[in-house]
# Entry
Amino acid sequence: MSRSPLPYSKKILELFKNPKNLGRMEDATISAVAGNPMCGDMITFYLKINDQDVIERATFESYGCAANIATSSIVTEKIRGMKLEDAWKISWKEIADEVGGLPAVKFHCGVLAVGALRRAIRAYYKLKNVKPSWLPDELTFEEKQALEEEELAERLAKRVGVVEEGS
Amino acid sequence: MSVLENVRELLRAHEGLKREVYFDIENASFVPQEVVDAMLPYFNQRAYGNPTLTHKPGWEAFEAIMESSQKIAGFLGCSVEEINFTPGETEANNLALIGTTLMARKKGGKIITSQVEPLSVINVVDLLEKFGFTVEKIPVDRDGFINLERLKEAVDDQTIIVSLSAVNHEIGTIQPIKEAVDIVKSKKPDILFHTDASDAYGKIPLNFKDLKVDMATISSPKILGPRGVGVLYVREGVHLERILEGQIGTQRLWPGVENTPLIVGFTKASELAFHNFNGNVDYMRNLRDKLIDGIFEAVSDVHLNGPRGDKRAPDNVNISFLRCEGEALTIELSLHGVYVSSGSACTRRVLQPSHVLVAIGRRFEEAHGSILMKVTRYHTDEDIEYALEVIPKAVERLRGITGSTVTK
# Structure
């Protein structure tokens, strides 16, 4: 294994400097979180959805690295005006491509962004108590990965022993 | 786009910076011009020969290396024969740990170190564990001080070597090494004691004879010498085997042709650090405290990692910013010309943040938001003021992106 200087693309740097659709949405129809602060990687999406199941607006907040911020930002831009069924089909690879490629160690940022989006879509239908035929019962790859990252961070944090006070 | 093209784009984003301040001495230092000037003649004007061979450029190289050994031995309070040049801190630590265990044909036994050592100790003892040695890593308290009681309990009949750094490389904790040596030696005098003193050399008073350590590592880039050279001090009478084989030159423990310009540069950097030692240390301490106090004044929800005051290395600043991810912070600061590193998992490319910050009991989310800075005698008040102008703004912007995602 070797390390490279995390060659972020121009697009990632642009979105890191000027993220689009940033901030909490007070009148959101639904919101969803993926990741946790222990991973150093956490996203919240806020979606305003109309009664035709179309995303009218999307915003995000992100605690994470530049790739995390950029992928979250691009997701909110991409899904605006989209039907939920189409938004569901967005894969992490598409997101990675749209930010000009992600370094391999940052793939999980794209995965987490899509995982958070799908969580929001599931949560919306759960709230409405509707189950569209295209919505799978099983968790998709991105949702599973988000869950695994959260669990792994919890486990690692727990393994750390108690540190004694004073000196 | 290729990786190289992306990096070039990142560099273009830095054009037009009004000031640049480099604080990432921990990961790689700049080399001051006066050190470069001292090295330059040794590349092609004099002493470029092999110091073991019988011609003028060789004898000149021999003279330069021996004079360097004498000077460094003087700064450490030891004899010339006890100075062994290596290609760096990593190599010196590997030599000390592997050369006294595996290469000395020891079949087993216990190796004691701490949870906060540099990776050139931690990863080496983990490797030795696979070869049948037992390893115990002593815990530290919230300021990073070694738990001496636990050390006392850990030392037993099977123990062959103890390795504890004199000053922590990440959080600047000045360890009670003398007390640790006394504990170890009073239990069993033939246990070897190694200290990585890379962050102590030129920063705190050091005398290896008084400390009674058997081996000690010092490193050139940590005192602004060129990278690629370090020293393993080996007390006379300590049995140590080479870990690499090849043509042996003036350095009995490291084969290959000595790198005279680097050795000369390391020596020049040492002279600069030790000339007016107290003045240098006071100067660094003053800038350190100005930086720490300034950040605490301007930014809320911050923690200092490591102790405050005299038990902290004079150059070390390590601060956790809550609700602000460290890698993002290093990039944001870089775009404004302030260069730092972070203990965030992201910069380490693994899910776990810095093992040192975890060992002092920082929660993961605190460790992810940490930045490490080291000040030098080349930094000015204006540099610190500029950093204090940039850092609060950067933290504020990133906390704005975090928003309510992470609550207090």
Observations:
- The two ends of chain B are 40 Å apart (CA to CA).
